[in-house]
Specification:
By secondary structure, the protein is mainly beta. The chain has one domain (about 20-115, about 130-160). The protein is built from two helices and nine strands; from the N terminus they run E-E-H-H-E-E-E-E-E-E-E. It has helices at about 40-45, 55-65; strands at about 20, 30, 65-70, 75-80, 85-90, 105-115, 130-135, 140-145, 155-160. The radius of gyration is 16 Å and the shape is globular.
Length: about 160
């Protein structure tokens, strides 16, 4: 009896609707999340250039109207041109665990930006971290950092640079 292999999800940009929010960069954001949660390495491998840059997350938060939606549990994001997207608070998966924590309360979205802390408390020169957007009711941090082995959401972004 052979063991079933886990399949790696594939990403096809044509399967997503991208929304022009009227951002200065011209970036377009997918209307919906990619299904599931991904480690940083999985996200980078699967979504490649469609995984948002750190600057894309900062622009999204700084250039758009961002409001927590109590009914839908997530962020309503409205661009300068009036178009909008919704980022659900889909929770996250701790490294080494299989279940989602804090769904409907916290949203965590990978960027393709790695993070190397200077502090010895992380281990000097550690390559184990990456940047991500994190939010909850009343707080939004576009470039926080966490272990690459954490399971976070992915919102594809189309770059035009």
């Amino acid at each position: 009896m052979s063991k079933a292999q886990k399949t790696t999800p594939t990403f096809k940009p044509e399967d997503f609707e991208f929304v022009d929010l009227g951002l200065p960069s011209g970036r377009h954001w997918a209307k919906t999340n990619a299904p599931g949660h991904y480690t940083f390495n999985q996200a980078a491998d699967i979504f490649a250039d469609y995984l948002p840059k750190g600057a894309a997350m900062v622009e999204l938060i700084e250039e758009c109207k961002v409001e927590w939606n109590d009914e839908k549990h997530g962020l309503d994001i409205t661009g300068p041109n009036g178009n909008s997207i919704f980022l659900p608070a889909a929770g996250y998966i701790h490294p080494g665990e299989n279940s989602v924590t804090s769904a409907d309360a916290v949203g965590c979205y990978w960027t393709r930006m790695t993070y190397v802390p200077n502090s010895d408390s992380y281990g000097s020169g550690s390559q184990a971290y990456a940047r991500y957007l994190v939010f909850g009711s009343g707080r939004v941090y576009p470039l926080s950092n966490d272990y690459r082995s954490s399971g976070f959401s992915v919102r594809p972004c189309r770059e035009f640079d």
